[in-house]
Predict the 3D structure of the following.
Amino acid sequence: MPPGDRLLIGSGRLLVAQPDGAPRPGPLSPWALLIRDGLIAWVGSPDDAPAVGEVDDLGSALVTPGLIDAHTHPIFAGDRSDEAAARLAGTPYSGGGIMRTVAATRAASDAQLLDLTAGRLAAALGSGTTTIECKSGYGLAPAEELRQLAIIGRAAQRVGIRVVRTFLGAHAVGPEAASPGEYVASVVDEMLPEAARHAEFCDVFCDEGFFDLQSTEGILTTARSLGLGLRLHAEQLARTGATELGVRLGAASVDHLERLDAAGVAALAQSRTVATLLPGPALAMGGPLPPARELLAAGARVALATDANAGTWGSYSMPMAIGLGATLLGMGVDAAVRSATFGAAQALQLDEVCGTLRAGLAADIVAWDAEHEGAFALRMGDVRPARIWMAGIEASR
Amino acid sequence: MPPGDRLLIGSGRLLVAQPDGAPRPGPLSPWALLIRDGLIAWVGSPDDAPAVGEVDDLGSALVTPGLIDAHTHPIFAGDRSDEAAARLAGTPYSGGGIMRTVAATRAASDAQLLDLTAGRLAAALGSGTTTIECKSGYGLAPAEELRQLAIIGRAAQRVGIRVVRTFLGAHAVGPEAASPGEYVASVVDEMLPEAARHAEFCDVFCDEGFFDLQSTEGILTTARSLGLGLRLHAEQLARTGATELGVRLGAASVDHLERLDAAGVAALAQSRTVATLLPGPALAMGGPLPPARELLAAGARVALATDANAGTWGSYSMPMAIGLGATLLGMGVDAAVRSATFGAAQALQLDEVCGTLRAGLAADIVAWDAEHEGAFALRMGDVRPARIWMAGIEASR
């Protein structure tokens, strides 16, 4: 028996997800799970469990894979809560939105940004997120965007959370650019070659009033040629066709989709591109909701994420995203939990790394202060991790 | 200068509410507030502040009155999260709903119920609630209902939260009753005379499939004659006229109102009865939403509450209720915060005790980990108290 092996056992519900098309098992209960070298080595019934020295009994707690947040913007300075209040009061707000955050973020020191970002990632981990996608995008100039990617990496190391970095230079047109075209050229020629060494994905804010389909395609094809995976902001403010563009380019994910129509649902259902839904900002913005039930019914891959950012949603709680997905988006609890674990892993192309509890994947595991996953709908962000293992190591609390 | 005086000062936003009809002040900033003998002795500009020994600088933190949760059901045993998941999956659930909770609660010992209830009240206080209304109603027999009222009082004492107790024997027909009429007679004749000595209010679940208008009126008029204040569950499952009954009987509050129509809105606007809205279960149940904007526009008194209970909503977070009120119900942040403080105090007939920050009221004060109340919409339940004062005493953390 190798030293360091640890057997977790429980009499409660262990939620597992199967690959697409495989039969969907109910939760295991009772269950046992063997951790070896940071990975899950075995999962099954306690009766069949291998004999190991260290056994940890989690009792009746609900146990899930570590949650995966596939869409966040955690690196910025400043506070725009006043904008949220003004928007909900129907008051036109003249604070400058994203450019206000860009100015505050550029003005912050590396140490300040590191502290701010690490604090947000710690909040994510503390609410049960073990893997988090983090976008740059509040820099909008070559040195600033690269600085953000570097600090995201350091913040994740400090916190001990698995991070996926996304370059989002095309979040808005940089304030110094003489024209959108000039800025797109800067993204493609100046930023992408260097960003590709510090990020896994490239994202573009492809929507009405931001980047059009042609610019988006130019940025993403260059990103792909540099080895970056692709993701898009799509169909939030208008039905632009960003979804079909993402499918055609082989994007890992198209995100938002509040204005997706039946043709877009069908396009996603026939693709491997994940529909990443963001119920938090959809709630806070008061606009249309993404067609979650239609996407699930059509067989599309679906992920849930927080979209935690500076302006429209500020919570890093994936339990709240699950709760809002289950209720506000009408997904139900099973699909919402699956979308926040297995579907999110697909959206980050990490489904051979994490996202469910099967042998060979990372031992990213959360035991909750709940006995049934229905608690995510009843208590939302109030459901808290009781214990968290990150690659087999229990997070200190 | 009396010993024990304490001056709080801040450079951030201090939110205050004025009585109905008075001009609505903006937030005070900067501000100073004098605590003396558990009360607010003075509020104003730091320049005009009295000289005292102990000064506590809260910096740029947002400061509000302690939040007031005017509708909860915190005393029960058992877990019905599975029901929530089944309901959201569209599966008819045969678990017995409220009767399942009644059975589990009756089976629990006093010590168990005290621990469970105190844990919930501690969660409420920890999320910024300094006054909480707590209903009995999972007993449905004379001794059980009285046991619940007694334990609620002990739990509140243990936690150090201001409590308002409501007798809700008429939550459902007790399982031993041969007929609804027999149960109503038991409520009126057996339970109410004793309950009136241990509660401030009487509530009735007046809705389709529960208690009808006639039974409700019988219970409430007896309650009133015994000195209890009145509140009603109204218009959640059907438009029954419970609102107009409540107005006619002088109820402090009618609660839920998902199916209230324009006539009901008008009736409330012309009364002193508060419309207590419960966005959590409205979200979780997926049905219609209460007409919050219409009530506000008509000038009705409005409160927000969690309705934390065993079956349809489990969160004691008033910040989440404020966030859902501001967004899901479309109230905006200002009205949502006012409804969770001043409006809720009116709903509990405590507006001469707490609910705003003015001289003479209890020094129930929360400093938040936020600088602007818009954070309640952006971060919802993630907004946390940094410091809490309860009747002038700072809560330990």
User: Anything to note?
Assistant: Residues 48 and 347 of chain B are 34 Å apart (CA to CA). Chain B touches chain A through 41 residues (CB under 8 Å).
